[in-house]
């Protein structure tokens, strides 16, 4: 079976399931940024950073996201447990990659539009093999995107509960992490509250 791009070792995993509790229950994936749903913008950032294959985890109002966002070419993963926190979305996303030939996953969050393609490209460039652990850093503080080689996936999934994504795992393996400073090209703010909506562009 001929795969044109499927030998890319790094696959993107976009966590876009959140219900926007502090935004009056508006799913973050559907917030508008530069005229399009935020989830669509985030996929474009990953592709702009050199990650062609992207898995997107959907949760809150997944049907509406499918309807309104242009996500062709993405693998859409439903997380029925999205309300339990980001950990369940990370687990669902990693499970969706298990049957692929991906050697590493680059994880990004839908609600960080200040992180663009340059930061993605830098983190991807630090990938070496299935043992890689890479995070972006902002003035020395670790943040997203993060890259996990395949050999870490099982243990990361086992520890991903509630809103703890890979945080505990990264803490335990701090000595193995390659950090890539991105503070000069990106801002790691989240769109969490009504006040944060001002950071989105029409």
Descriptive report:
It is a single chain. This protein is of the alpha/beta class. The chain has helices at residues 38-48, 62-68, 86-97, 117-125, 153-159, 167-172, and strands spanning 10-16, 32-33, 36-37, 54-58, 75-78, 104-109, 133-138, 141-149, 178-181. The strands form two sheets. A seven-stranded mixed β-sheet has the order 5-4-1-6-8-7-9, sandwiched between helices. Strands 2-3 form a two-stranded antiparallel ribbon. Strand 7 and strand 8 form a beta hairpin. Helix 3 (86-97) packs antiparallel against helix 5. Residues 1-5 have low confidence and may be disordered.
Task: Briefly summarize what is shown.
26% of the residues lie in helices and 22% in strands. It has 202 residues and is an alpha/beta fold.
Key terms for this structure?
26% helix, globular, alpha/beta, 6 helices, 7-stranded mixed β-sheet
Task: Look at the structure and give the mean pLDDT.
Answer: 94
Characterize the main sheet.
7 strands, mixed
Strand residue percentage: 15-25%
Number of strands: 9
Enumerate how many helices there are, as a single number: 6
Order of helices and strands: EEEHEHEHEHEEHHE
- Helicity level, as a percent range? 25-40%
What structural class is derived from the secondary structure elements? alpha/beta
Report Rg.
16 Å
End-to-end separation in angstroms reads 43 Å
The general outline is globular
Enumerate the spans where pLDDT stays under 50 for 5 or more consecutive residues: 1-5
Widest β-sheet, arrangement of strands = 5-4-1-6-8-7-9
């Amino acid at each position: 079976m001929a795969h044109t791009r499927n030998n890319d070792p790094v696959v993107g995993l976009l966590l876009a399931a959140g219900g926007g509790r502090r935004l009056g229950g508006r799913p973050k994936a559907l917030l508008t940024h530069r005229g399009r749903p935020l989830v669509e913008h985030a996929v474009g950032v990953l592709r702009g950073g050199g990650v062609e294959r992207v898995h997107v985890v959907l949760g809150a109002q997944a049907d509406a996201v499918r309807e309104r966002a242009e996500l062709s070419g993405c693998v859409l993963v439903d997380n029925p447990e999205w309300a339990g926190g980001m950990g369940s979305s990370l687990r669902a996303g990693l499970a969706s990659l298990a049957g692929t030939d991906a050697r590493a996953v680059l994880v990004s969050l839908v609600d960080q539009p200040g992180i663009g393609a340059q930061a993605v490209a830098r983190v991807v460039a630090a990938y070496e093999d299935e043992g890689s652990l890479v995070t972006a850093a902002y003035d020395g503080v670790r943040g997203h995107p993060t890259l996990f080689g395949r050999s870490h996936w099982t243990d990361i999934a086992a520890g991903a509960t509630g809103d703890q994504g890979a945080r505990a795992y990264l803490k335990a393996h701090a000595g193995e992490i390659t950090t890539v400073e991105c503070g000069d090209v990106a801002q790691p703010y989240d769109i969490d509250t009504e006040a944060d909506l001002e950071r989105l562009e029409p």
